[in-house]
Known about the structure:
The chain is α+β, with helices and mostly antiparallel strands. The chain has helices at 20-27, 33-37, 52-66, 91-100, 118-131, 211-217, 220-244, 263-279, 287-293, 301-306, 308-325, 331-336, 343-355, 391-398, 400-405, 412-425, and strands at 5-12, 16-19, 42-44, 74-80, 111-112, 139-148, 160-169, 174-185, 255-258, 363-370, 374-382, 385-386, 389-390, 408-409, 431-432, 445-450, 456-460.
Amino acid sequence: ANNVGVLAMDIYFPPTCVQQEALEAHDGASKGKYTIGLGQDCLGFCTEVEDVISMSLTVVSSLLEKYNVDPKQIGRLEVGSETVIDKSKSIKTFLMQIFEKCGNTDIEGVDSTNACYGGTAALFNCVNWVESSSWDGRYGLVVCTDSAVYAEGPARPTGGAAAIAMLIGPDAPIAFESKFRGSHMSHAYDFYKPNLASEYPVIPFPFYIDSLFFVVDGKLSQTCYLMALDSCYKTFCAKYEKSTGKQFSLSDAAYFVFHSPYNKLVQKSFARLVFNDSVRKASSIDEATKEKLAPFSTLSGDESYQNRDLEKVSQQVAKPLFDAKVQPTTLIPKQVGNMYTASLYAAFASLLHNKNSELAGKRVILFSYGSGLTATMFSLQLHEGQKPFSLSNIATVMNVPSKLKSRHEFSPEKFIETMHLMEHRYGAKDFVTSKDCSLLAPGTYYLTEVDHMYRRFYAKK
Ligand code: ACO
């Protein structure tokens, strides 16, 4: 199979959200901390009638319907998620309800989990399957679904929720350049969920620990992310150069898409790539940039992650390139928040929405990061494709502006009330939900009941 990649995409996020500006004021944070400091506009969240299973049921049935794909044509279904509802039964098996109904139970694949990286693992599995000798000619389907919720405190505004579905096959408008991939995997405790009774992660950073920790580690999850980014970029460039005989630079891709825990980290990440190119003396760096970054070129790796001046100067000089190559990818992550496994693909969906008519013939680089930690940088080549599997049709089907516009804003008080209810509901049994689906769009699945045996029941609006 040639040009294997993404044929079709759809995205779902809850219709309920809270404005970061309102949350900021409510939390007593200084004005601009969440909107400028973190770079976030709005936060989407599930109410008691939605969860990662209902969102994935919604997005899968919507994709099949809107692209007119027969469920019998799916031969592999892979789910990426870090939201644990059951320690054994996969989310994939819930989705089988859609396929069993049509007489298709011959579908490989289960769930992949490692923080925000599970969606990428699922995507690679599907692409590799279509490229392999075990491919039976049918489509692969990837689902990334997560609800990111944090305990009260500084991390709470970085929550979010969404599900994304991607149809995988040959001759795709979004094709993998599988030769160009750089990964970095190592053991770190930067963000993890050891408390199985709680949905909230543990994030060791100075606020939670003590001043000594601050001196030694700073913001650990941010540093781990940036170190993994550097390492992936180095490996990616080396593989590119080995294969093409040419040095890779930021000029060789039209857009860069990052996993987005919050927008500020995406700004810092791209600045870090500019710094990398400057140290590598790559062709993307002009004289003025070279001069401004020169004083930092002798810093050791560790020093460079802690250096606030470097952070500031590199973000400054990267700004024009950031606006051209990254800004168009930031819409949904800024409007919905961190969607964990779906974040990177929601950023990519933002690019398709903003630039679909200009993307044919362009290369796009994606950086996937999951704490713990696992990271990969990989490359896509875009082609217009043919309807229904064309870039413009994907943008039309996803209909991002209308999904964003039709959301309902909750007050911070109501958001916090919802978080409290969800804390009680997590891992609970023997309850029925309000079944209030008045805010949900027609076609949305919702949770109606969890019975005395923890079995979950859903209905479709
Ligand atoms: N106006 C403008 N900017 C402000 C203001 C203000 N009034 N107040 C603060 N800021 C800036 C700060 O300068 C800082 O920006 P900088 O880093 O560029 O200097 C930023 O806002 C954040 O403020 P801090 O006080 O440094 O950090 P805080 O204690 O609020 O914590 C953090 C922020 C660390 C991002 C926290 O929200 C968090 O831990 N979130 C979870 C992130 C995470 O770990 N996600 C998972 C990672 S990978 C994955 O997705 C699994």
